[in-house]
Amino acid sequence: MGSRGLTLFAVPWKNEDGSINNLRIRRLKDKLGVRAVPSAEVEFDGAKAYVIGDPNRGFYYMMEALNLSRICNMVASIGIMRRSYSEAKAYAERRDAFGKRLCEFPMVQKTLTELKQKLEAETAAIFELIQLYEKITNGEATKEEEALNRLLIAILKKESAEQAIAFAHEAIEMHGGNGYIEDFVTPRLLRDAQVLTVWEGTANILGLEVIRLVNKFSVHEIFIADLKERLDGMDAPELVKWREDLKVRLEEFASDDRVTQELKAKSLAKEMAELYEQVVYVGM
Ligand SMILES: Cc1cc2nc3c(=O)[nH]c(=O)nc-3n(C[C@H](O)[C@H](O)[C@H](O)COP(=O)(O)OP(=O)(O)OC[C@H]3O[C@@H](n4cnc5c(N)ncnc54)[C@H](O)[C@@H]3O)c2cc1C
Hints:
Elements: E1 9-10, E2 23-28, E3 40-44, E4 50-51, H1 58-94, E5 96-97, E6 100-101, H2 106-137, H3 143-174, H4 186-194, H5 203-217, H6 219-231, H7 237-255, H8 258-282
Antiparallel strand pairs: 1-4, 2-3, 5-6
Bound molecules: flavin-adenine dinucleotide (FAD).
The site of flavin-adenine dinucleotide has 11 residues, from helix 5.
């Protein structure tokens, strides 16, 4: 049966006469984070609903919407990354420990530098993707660009969400014990970041998406060609070498059996995201 026949509906909250439609909020969920956005279990019992578009293409419409909501997830992720970095830096600049400002310690400087570099690269890559996505929504993209767009959405959603959690963790660490205390924003950053890897597709589901795109559209070849074009004319021998190594591993991956592909998908997705980010960042 699959997804054919699934229909998308719009269900208004209120009827035209102002009365509430036949729907019931069974309960609001008690969540770890994102408490500012209520999540509920909703019952539709004889509720008035409007079919959206072709009744057979509801799943397709949701998949299209998912591309956008994954991009929104990325932007939320870099938001948490930036706030975490800013909080960590500000704290390091005002807290004294063992007779020095935290920001004078080499280990603290290294942490802040790495966070800043990753934040800038992640932001650059995501906004580069948004330009490509815009080209697609304007109907100006080639088939190859459409496949590349799907791949970048999968790998950058996964990477940025994981980084949001890693950054929130580092912000807590930089604050020491204070970072764990609700007087500071840091516990909320970690709680809010934690959902970003779950909703809009978990890492495993995004890994499966990478496999699908490689097997169906040979997207790894498009990805590697895109990187080559970006690297041509750039003075970045380490990135060129990384691209060549990754090309070999992606070609192997494309001919691996299914189980091996599933075992490799997430680590390759991470590496693809990291390389893409660096190439975009250095090329800016
Ligand atoms: C706060 C919140 C709000 C949400 N809001 C919405 C919303 O507005 N609309 C909406 O549609 N959804 C919403 N979701 C649902 C969310 O998208 C799903 O929870 C999420 O996609 C994971 O699906 P699941 O819960 O069914 O987990 P499951 O599919 O049961 O997955 C559980 C675990 O198994 C893994 N797994 C599943 N299948 C495979 C596989 N084939 N191979 C390997 N591993 C696998 C997953 O990666 C995950 O780690 C929301 C979730 C949360 C937490």
